[in-house]
Each structure stands twice: as C-alpha cells, then as structure tokens.
Amino acid sequence: MKWNSIVFKLGVVIMVLFLSILVPFAFFIDRIFLNVYSLYLNENIKDMANRLSTVASTSMKEDPYFYENITALTNHDVIFFNENGVIISKNVLEFKTGEKIPKKWLQKLQDGKQVEGERFEEYTYEKFYYVGQPIMDNNNFQGGVLIFSSIDEFHHKMHAVRDWIIRAIITAIVLALGYTIFLVWRLSRPLLKMEQATREIAKGNLDTRVQIQSNDEVGSLAKAINDLSVELNNYRVNRSELLANISHELRTPISYLKGYAQVIKNGQYENEDELKIYSNIIESESERLAKLIQELFELSKMEEGMIKLYVQSVDIEDLVESVVQKVQLKGQEKGLILSMEIEQNLPIMQTDGLRLEQILLNLLENAVNYTDKGEVNIQVNKVKKGIQFAVIDTGLGIPPEDLPFVFDRFHRVEKSRARQMGGTGLGLAIVAELVKHLQGEIIVNSKLGEGSEFRIIFPLTIRNESEILDQL
C-alpha cells in the first residue's frame, strides 16, 4: 500500500476519528468513576462516623470491650477517645491505648467540628483517609471517634476499573481497525475501479465502462465517467467522419480546379468560348471551395462556443421582408411563389439580428433549392414562448429515415442534386448551432413528395453574450 494513496489516507482519517472519540470518552469515564467513588467513600465514612458517635454518645464507657464490639461491626479501623483526647479503645496504627490524639484534632473536635484528611503510615507505607466526629451530650463534649479507611484498597479498585477500561479501549480499537479496513475497502474499491477505467480510456479504449450500481455521489461519478467515455467515443467517430467528409468534399472542387487549370495551361481548348467555360468552372469551384472552408470555420467556432453575439432591438417585419427580397430573384428564376404571413403588431425582439437573418436566409435558400414548383412560404406569429418562424415549401420532402440526420454536418438527402445546387451539406448544421446560441428551438416536419416545414421558436429577449457562453 502506498503511503500517499487514498486508501491509506482514508484509513488514517477514520482511525483518528475513532481514537478522537474513544480516548476522551475513556478518560472522562475514568474521571467520573474516580470522583463518584471518592465521593461515595467520603460520604460513607462520614456517615459511619456520625452513627458511631451517636451510639457512643449515650454513655462513654471505659470498658474497651464495649468499643471493640462496636468497631467489629465495621470494616475500618476505629478509635474512641474521651473528653481529654485519651484513647480508650484498642491500638490502631500509631495510636496506642492511653495516649492522646493530636492536639489540633482535639481542639477542633471540642468546638463541635469534624476533622478529615489523609494520613501516611510510615511502617506499612499505606495511606489512609480519616474522619473524626465529636461525641456530644447536651452540647457538652464527651469525647469522639476517629475512623481510618485504607486508600490503597481504593487505589486497587481503581486500577482494576482502569484495567477494564483499557481492555475495552483495546477491544474497541481492534474492532474499529477491522471496521476501518472493511469501510476503506468498500469505499476505495469503486474509486480504484474508476481509476483503472479512466486510465483505459486515456489509452484509447473508449469502450471501457465502470460497473458501479449505486445512487450516491460515487455512482454519479461512475455514470459521469461512462458518459465521458461515450462522448469521447462519439467525438472520435464524428472526427473521423468529419475528416472523411471534408476530404471527400474538398476532393471534387480541387479535382476540377486542377483538371481545368491543366487544360488551360496546356492550351487544350479550341476557342475563346471554350476557354471562358473552363474559366467559369474554375471560378465556380473556387467559390464553392471558399464557401465550404468559411462554413467549416464558422461551424467550428459555434461548436467551441467562440461565436460573438450582438444583442440589439430587431424589427421582425423589416428583417423578414429583407430576407425574402434577397431570395426573391432566385425563386422567380425557378417560377416559384415566395409569400409572407406576418402577424400584426409583433413586439420588438432583443436578439442578434444578423444571426437571425442568417438562419432565415439559409432556410429560405434551402427551400428554394429543393423546390421545383409551387411556393415557399414564411410565417411569423407570436406564441407563448416568444416568436415563431415557419418556413414551408412544396418541394420534394425528406424521407422519414433521413429526418433525424438533417442537422448533421455533410448530410444530404439528394447528394447529386445538392452538388448541382452548390450545397456544402453544412447549411442546416449551421442553422441548428445558431438556433442553439440564440436560445431557440427548431422542429422539422416533412412528407416525401409533399414538402417540408421548419419551425423555429425564439424568446423575445436573450441574455447577454457572457451568460449565453456560460450556458453553452
């Protein structure tokens, strides 16, 4: 196991957490038990001294057997003394029968006060806790009683309790260690799986998936890694397809340019009219090539979020009329009817007018290119979500199997016709990206042989450029 691995770090954190709870808890338990036992011992001895003084207060007998019989009822060493402080019971510790108790004790007891404290036995090296209680008769000092209780016994009991506490702590630490190992294993296993999966993805194995079935943050991360793998795989496929499509699209105009340039260079033409035809082909293919490169560049900027929007007030009616006028001549050449249906009193839109014009122009040109007879109609009306634009034609229509792909780059329903019209296969892809940047939504409906309908809904007001880029 590596010292800097997440498994080790997580294990250390959990163990520190356990210890930070167990050790203070054990310490407080020890202190509480010590205080409670000390209080119990003190109160017990004081209560015993009070009872013995009460029993002896009825008459202070000089017979030592009387006091021996009383002290036999206790587990402590007891001394009785008379009003002069002379010990009248049997010998206890260094206190002998017939001797006097310390003067400072006697003075305090004569005042009716209780004495207490600790005393060390020099010969046995044993420590005692003592309590002295005066014996009063009608407020007259008749003597007193001293009780000595060994603290060593108390210490032995405390050591026994502490031994049990230590055993409990060790047991808890062992259990905590086992739980920590299990918990770390459970938590780190999915992370290690995800690490292995990401390394496989980094090597190019984009079919790698993380199999983690959970609804928590770890499961969400695993799902994100799987989604990333899918997106990277799609990106790789799309990139390969894009490069193949670009090379295919560039091959035709470049072949024309090279072929007819060589014809002109080698003088393989019969007259000026033929030379003019070849020159026109070169010019047309150059324009087509330049348009393809420009649209690829523009589409790339859109997909990378690098497009700049200039939000302004847009008069919808003026914009639509301008777009129709630009396409009018081309429609008349094909004998088509271009019509407009614009709802009255439409509100002013706050959007990028140039980009909106580009969208409508692309859709109208596309409709004119793929409509041989009939009409192309543009409708504008207000809806709940904003303003709806609809471009409807009576053209050839789109087959149902092609509808999901109409906004893909280089997708063409009729490839031969698209080349005749000079199409690049990027028009609708650009439209879809622009609609996304202008926060709109686009819907296409079509019936083969009857025509197509493109409906776009834009909000009346879009946010500023930075907010749009952040969203994208």
UniProtKB/TrEMBL annotation:
Membrane topology recorded in Swiss-Prot or TrEMBL: Multi-pass membrane protein
Question: Which SMART domains does the entry link to?
Answer: HAMP, HATPase_c, HisKA
| Entry-linked Gene3D superfamilies | 1.10.287.130, 6.10.340.10, Histidine kinase-like ATPase, C-terminal domain
Residue spans making up a coiled coil are: 275-302
Cellular location of this protein? Cell membrane
Keyword match rRNA-binding: no
Primary localisation category: membrane
**Assigned EC number:** 2.7.13.3
Q: What PANTHER family does the database record attribute to this sequence? A: PHOSPHATE REGULON SENSOR PROTEIN PHOR
Task: Output this protein's name.
Answer: histidine kinase
Origin organism of this chain? Lysinibacillus zambalensis
Q: List the top taxonomic levels of the source.
A: Bacteria, Bacillati, Bacillota, Bacilli, Bacillales
